[in-house]
């Protein structure tokens, strides 16, 4: 199965133009797509509903959307009727197979005094694969605070670890027909893949929280309940392969860095076949990443 993750920057490409058709062409037809920076009703992108636009451009896919930011954008018309709109910013998950259940987890957020900080989320979907059910996460960590990202990394790991014990959208064997035609609770498997823009480099301390610290003598000291970096495990290329060219900010110059990752639970790591970064993509300031798993 082929998985893709792409921070689409609201559709704004390297030429500063919004072009969703270009993004769709760059993604192609993988089995599962994880998107970040998908927004609804923001002025800079024409007050458009990007979730609906993208869903229409991928008509053969099931999809769910999980906003981190969710604020009022309603219009009260002259007759007093409310035209309902929510200004949202978040993650999207699309799958050729049905998304059996979904949860949108809110990640920790620090209340910063001056730096602009957005609420971030972790969108979870359970899909069936030829090897059985799999949890897929699309996420986007904080862009400005290393400590905030560390808290988000620890929360992500906790969500993955606790999921099987908590059960899915409901648990128990006595659900009525009001909830299910089959009587079965949605599965909540242990195996998981987490894809997205983590806003951290492989040299950052937050990276070690996710995959374990590096030791000169013994290499990566991953624990059984850590995650595995699919790029590193598959030996697909330069460990610091850039996936984004960031604009200059404050005292930080323009830099090309690896910010986008695919992490898997250790039991899924042996099924990684390959990973690829499309360095030619022009649809965003990020490049899409692709992972193939033997499922």
Structural account:
- With 295 residues, the protein is of the alpha+beta class.
- The protein has a single domain, classed as Deoxyribonuclease I, Chain A (4-Layer Sandwich).
- The strands form five sheets. The protein has a six-stranded mixed β-sheet with strand order 3-6-2-1-18-17. A six-stranded mixed β-sheet has the order 7-8-9-10-16-13.
- Strand 9, helix 3 and strand 10 form a beta-alpha-beta unit.
- Helix 3 runs parallel beside helix 4.
- The longest helix is centred in the middle third of the chain and has 21 residues.
- The N and C termini lie close together (6 Å).
- The model has no long low-confidence stretch (mean pLDDT 93).
- It comes from Kiloniella antarctica.
Name the shape in a single word. Answer: globular
Task: Give, in order, the helices and strands.
Answer: EHEHEEEEEEEHEHEEEHEEEEE
Assembly state of the chains shown? single chain
Content-based structural category: alpha+beta
Q: Can you summarize the main beta sheet?
A: 6 strands, mixed
Assign the CATH superfamily.
Endonuclease/exonuclease/phosphatase
- Quickly count the helices: 5
Strand fraction equals: 25-35%
Q: What strand line-up does the widest sheet have?
A: 3-6-2-1-18-17
Under the CATH scheme, which class? Answer: Alpha Beta
Which percent range fits the helix content? 10-25%
CATH architecture: 4-Layer Sandwich
As a whole number of angstroms, the C-alpha radius of gyration is 19 Å
Poorly predicted runs: none
Q: What would the average pLDDT be, to the nearest integer?
A: 93
For the record, give the distance between the C-alpha atoms at the N and C termini, rounded to a whole number. Answer: 6 Å
Total tally of structural domains: 1
Q: What is the number of strand segments?
A: 18
What name is given to the CATH topology?
Deoxyribonuclease I, Chain A
